[in-house]
């Protein structure tokens, strides 16, 4: 999107457009692609406009957290994600040209019936995007590359966009997924409140090493430099001998050289490797660690998602994950309004639910970054369960209705993530998978309402430890929406939320 983009409200949006769609998505990063996949599988027409000629080529957001893996399972791409990635290797510190101590940045978890994906997954961002793009095309969708949105107008019934190829598009809604420097957000006049987490610059690059280079692929290698000038090299699960290089500068006035020659020089100077060991620099970028949160996630019929709504320090791997989960939250709600007659007010819950989550993840990333700096920059600060995003939920959301009383403090409640399991021999994530709600009756013979099977999948089984006994309504995005000892009230709840 160009810097001359214009946003106006209340006039011009209803003019004749060259084509119509239901949702205009600006940006084909992980956020835009995940949203497009979710909407397309729900039968919602969307146009994805990406100003670049190709998908992003680098490894930048290289870690997928367990909750994001569950989402990708639902979207039908997890086998490909698993095939293209790996568990994170242990860290290894180099001293005087020799490998030294090793440690795990995050303790390894054991998969359980309730948490089938217990560990973060290492996969280059570019590969994640390629997989989501392939899934989108399988579903009949596509991305329009080399197309920027140059002007947006909106009125009470829709959004009109002028594209850089001179076309105009009319949509019911638009979603800005165009990154931390989002021109859509700026055009909307939505401020971001934030801070510089660390004034010292960083540089990240993907390099291909010679096969004979003296650096194994079983560790994430770290070299501590003098005065805070550090460097790390993480092996990337890709063909060849690819590594992500992360360079830390001790001087906040340093000027990183992100050219290919500059990256090669850094590897030569700060590690035991030589310039000849670097076969190719595939991608590189300089940046500064910042944290920022948009003051609001919606302006009329335009929504902010992903980095357009929140910008994270890279420490902790929360940015891409929080972004994909924005898309997953927004997708089913847009589809419910556009396809099922749900009230427009359902869309208000997107900001109500996602903005507090984003704020919490920003705080976590910022604290972890500063704790890492305080320890000299070596990545020794452990990433615990809070980084996996499995415990995040929406208990305070107006969509979360808990009718049971006397629950134990640790009990599953409305608003929590719905655990996996196998009650009655049927895997719950298999039941949840797809664009529908799920009604579980566990350990009870109480009568259940007759619900549209195209909208709600119903399943009875014995009481199950992770849930207990009762009736549980699971949202399309895998969170517990409504819970009761009987089904009384669940049909009214569905009607109020979906309009059906």
Task: Give the gist of this structure.
This is Pentachlorophenol monooxygenase. Its cofactor is FAD. The two termini are about 40 Å apart.
Structure report:
This protein is α/β, with parallel strands linked by helices and 500 residues long. Among the domains are: 244 residues, FAD/NAD(P)-binding domain, CATH 3.50.50; 98 residues, Glutaredoxin (3-Layer(aba) Sandwich). Helix content is 24%, strand content 27%. The chain contains ten helices and 27 strands. An eight-stranded mixed beta sheet has the order 8-7-16-17-18-15-19-22. The chain has a six-stranded mixed beta sheet with strand order 10-4-3-14-21-20. Strand 3, helix 1 and strand 4 form a beta-alpha-beta unit. Helix 1 runs parallel beside helix 4, helix 1 runs parallel beside helix 7 and helix 7 packs antiparallel against helix 8. The radius of gyration is 24 Å and the shape is globular. This is Pentachlorophenol monooxygenase. GO terms for molecular function: monooxygenase activity. InterPro entries: FAD-bd, FAD/NAD-bd_sf, RIFMO-like. Keywords: FAD, Flavoprotein, Monooxygenase, Oxidoreductase.
State the CATH superfamily name of the domain at 6-84 and 122-192 and 295-388: FAD/NAD(P)-binding domain
**CATH class descriptor of the domain at 6-84 and 122-192 and 295-388:** Alpha Beta
Strand order of the largest sheet: 8-7-16-17-18-15-19-22
Name the average pLDDT: 92
Number of helices: 10
Total beta-strand segments: 27
Radius of gyration, rounded? 24 Å
Pfam families: FAD_binding_3, Rng_hyd_C
Cofactor: FAD
Keywords: FAD, Flavoprotein, Monooxygenase, Oxidoreductase
Domain FAD-binding: 20-362
């Amino acid at each position: 999107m160009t810097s001359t983009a214009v946003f106006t409200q209340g006039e011009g949006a209803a003019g004749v457009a060259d084509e119509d769609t239901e949702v205009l998505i600006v940006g084909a990063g992980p956020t835009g692609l995940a949203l497009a996949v979710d909407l397309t599988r729900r039968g919602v027409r969307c146009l994805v406009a990406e100003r670049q000629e190709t998908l992003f080529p680098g490894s930048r957001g290289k870690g997928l957290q367990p909750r994001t893996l569950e989402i990708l399972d639902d979207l039908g791409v997890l086998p490909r994600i698993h095939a293209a990635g790996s568990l994170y290797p242990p860290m290894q510190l180099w001293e005087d040209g020799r490998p030294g101590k090793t440690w795990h940045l995050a303790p390894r978890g054991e998969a359980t019936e309730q948490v089938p994906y217990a560990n973060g997954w290492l996969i280059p961002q570019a590969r994640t995007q390629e997989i989501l793009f392939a899934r989108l095309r399988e579903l009949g969708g596509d991305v329009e590359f080399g197309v920027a949105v140059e002007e947006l107008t909106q009125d009470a019934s829709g959004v009109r966009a002028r594209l850089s190829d001179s076309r105009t598009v009319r949509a019911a809604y638009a979603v800005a997924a165009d990154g931390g420097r989002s021109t859509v957000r700026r055009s909307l006049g939505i401020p971001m409140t934030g801070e510089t987490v660390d004034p010292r610059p960083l540089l990240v690059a993907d390099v291909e090493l010679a096969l004979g280079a003296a650096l194994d692929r079983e560790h994430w290698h770290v070299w501590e430099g003098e005065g805070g000038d550090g460097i790390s090299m993480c092996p990337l699960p890709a063909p060849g001998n690819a590594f992500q290089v992360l360079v830390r500068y001790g001087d906040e006035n340093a000027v990183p050289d992100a050219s290919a020659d500059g990256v090669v020089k850094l590897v030569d100077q700060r590690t035991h490797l030589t310039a000849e060991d670097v076969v190719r620099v595939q991608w590189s970028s300089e940046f500064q660690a910042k944290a920022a949160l948009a003051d609001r996630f919606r302006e009329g019929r335009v929504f902010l998602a992903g980095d357009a709504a929140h910008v994270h320090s890279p420490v902790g791997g929360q940015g891409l994950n929080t972004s994909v989960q924005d898309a997953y939250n927004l997708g089913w709600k847009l589809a419910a309004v556009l396809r099922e007659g749900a009230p427009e007010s359902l869309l208000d819950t997107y900001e109500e639910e996602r903005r507090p989550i984003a704020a919490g993840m920003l705080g976590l990333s910022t604290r972890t970054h500063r704790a890492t700096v305080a320890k000299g920059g070596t990545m020794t600060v452990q990433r615990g369960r809070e980084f996996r995003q499995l415990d995040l939920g929406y208990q305070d959301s107006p969509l979360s209705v808990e009718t049971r009383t006397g629950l134990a403090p640790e009990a599953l409640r409305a608003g929590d993530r719905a655990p996996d399991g196998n009650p009655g021999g049927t895997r719950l994530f298999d039941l949840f998978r797809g664009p529908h709600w799920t009604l579980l009756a566990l350990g009870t013979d109480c009568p259940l309402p007759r619900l549209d099977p195209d909208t709600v999948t119903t399943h009875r089984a014995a009481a199950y430890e992770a849930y207990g006994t009762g009736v549980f309504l699971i949202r399309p995005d895998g969170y517990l929406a409504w819970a009761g000892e009987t089904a009384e009230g669940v049909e009214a709840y569905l009607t109020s939320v979906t309009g059906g």
